[in-house]
Amino acid sequence: MANNDGFLGAQSMWIGIGVLAVLFFGWRSFGPQHETQQEPVAQLNVGSGADARVEKLTRAQCLGLEDRVWTVLPDGVECIAFAASPNIQGASSALLYFGGDISEEQLAGSTQEEARKGNQRRASSIAAQQGVPVVIVGRPGLMGSSGFHLLGGRRDEGQVIDAAVDALKDKLGIRRLALAGQSGGSRIIAQLLVIGRRDIACAAMGAGAYDVPRLRGGGTARTSIFGDPGSGYLVPMLKAGDIPAVPGRRSFVIGDPRDKVAPFSEQKAWADKLAALGHHVQLIEAKAKDSEFHGMSDKAIAAAGMCLSEKSDAEIRAAVESG
C-alpha cells in the first residue's frame, strides 16, 4: 500500500494556508477599519488675546484665499501669504521683500487682515517708487501666513520660504529675483543663498544677523564644541561655503555701525565671508533713523530695486548712504 503521509502533509499545509488567507482578507473586509490618512492641513493663527485661536487650512482652502501659495515640505505644509503690486502682471522679474521679526505684543496688536491690506498698499507704493514689480512675502505666522513666528534663524523657516519662492515664481510667472530684507528677513535671504538658490540676481540684506542666533535674554543659542547650534538652526555664517557661484549676482550687506539690535561687526563679518569665497558683495554703512539704529528696510529695498534696474554699485552705494 502506498504511503500517503507526504501527500496528506502537503494537503494539510495548503488547507492551512487557505484558511489563514480567508481569515486575513475577511478581517480586512469586515473587521475594524484602519483610519485613512488625512489630508495635511496648515495651522493659521487668528485673533489675539482672549480671542486667539487656530484654524486649519487645507490646500483648497488656502488657494481659495486671496494672495496665497501652498508649500509642501517633508515634515509639513504651510499656506504663505503675499502682497503683490499691480504691475506684477506679465513681469518676468520682481523685487521680493522679507520683513523683520516682530514682538509678541506687536503680533497680538494687529489682525492678519489689517497686516495684509497694509502690505498690499506698501507693495504698490514701493513699486511706484522703484519702478519695478514688488512682492512682499509673509513669513510664517505673519501677514496671514500659517505657521508660527519663530525668532532666531530656525532651519524650517528658511525651508518654508524657499518653497514659497518656488510657488510664487510658478504662480506669478517671474524668473529673475531681487531680494530685499530687514533684520530677520535679511537672515532669511542669507539662508536662501546657502540653501543653493541660483535664481537670485540681487540680494540686499539690511541690519541682518548671520551667525549663531542670539537669545532675547542675552547670550547665544547653545552650541556644540564646534560652535554648531544643531539641526534646528540654519546658520548662514557656518554654511556660507554652500552658496553656489552665480555669474552676475550682486549682494549688498547694509547696516548702521550704531545698531543696538544686530551688531554691525557681524554684518561686516558676513560681507567679508562672502568676499573671501569669491562672491560679488558690497558692504555699505548707512544711517538708520530709529532710536535703535536698526531700521534698514527702505535702504535694502532701494538697493534691490536699483540692482534689478541694472544701476551700478557706485550709484547704489551713493543712494543708500545718502538716503
What features would you describe in this structure?
- Helix 7 (236-239) links the parallel strand 8 and strand 9.
- The strands form two sheets. An eight-stranded mixed beta sheet has the order 3-4-6-5-7-8-9-10, with helices on both faces. A two-stranded antiparallel ribbon has the order 1-2.
- The chain has helices spanning 5-30, 59-63, 104-109, 112-130, 155-172, 184-195, 236-239, 264-276, 297-308, 313-322; strands spanning 42-46, 53-57, 68-73, 76-84, 93-98, 134-137, 176-182, 200-206, 250-255, 281-285.
- The N and C termini lie far apart (110 Å).
- Helix 5 packs across helix 6 (184-195) and helix 9 packs antiparallel against helix 10.
- By secondary structure, it is α/β, with parallel strands linked by helices.
- The chain has one domain (79-322): Rossmann fold (3-Layer(aba) Sandwich).
Number of domains: 1
The name of the CATH architecture is 3-Layer(aba) Sandwich
Helix content: 25-40%
Instruction: Compute the number of strand runs.
Output: 10
Brief summary:
The protein has a single domain (79-322), classed as 3-Layer(aba) Sandwich (Rossmann fold).
What are the main properties of this structure?
323 residues; alpha/beta; eight-stranded mixed sheet; 10 helices; disordered N terminus
Chain-wise SSE layout:
Layout: H1 5-30, E1 42-46, E2 53-57, H2 59-63, E3 68-73, E4 76-84, E5 93-98, H3 104-109, H4 112-130, E6 134-137, H5 155-172, E7 176-182, H6 184-195, E8 200-206, H7 236-239, E9 250-255, H8 264-276, E10 281-285, H9 297-308, H10 313-322
Helix pairs in contact: 5-6, 9-10
